[in-house]
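Entry 14. Structure prediction run on the chain below.
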Amino acid sequence: MKPIFTALGVVLLVVAAVYFLVPADSLPGFLPGHEAGVTRVHAKHGIAAAVAGVVLLALGAWMGRR
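Output returned:
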């Protein structure tokens, strides 16, 4: 389970970076929040993905201590 949590945590941190760095009209179509003609970033989506990524990384680290 540790490698799964760690990998998902890293993926979610990358997704959070994409949400913070890419405007809404340039987001990939498979990510929620894609809006044509909108140049703002989706900070709430980025924060949620970052928090979930950190929680999964912490969970993976905690499970690895056993």
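The mean pLDDT is 88.
Filed with the rest of this week's runs.
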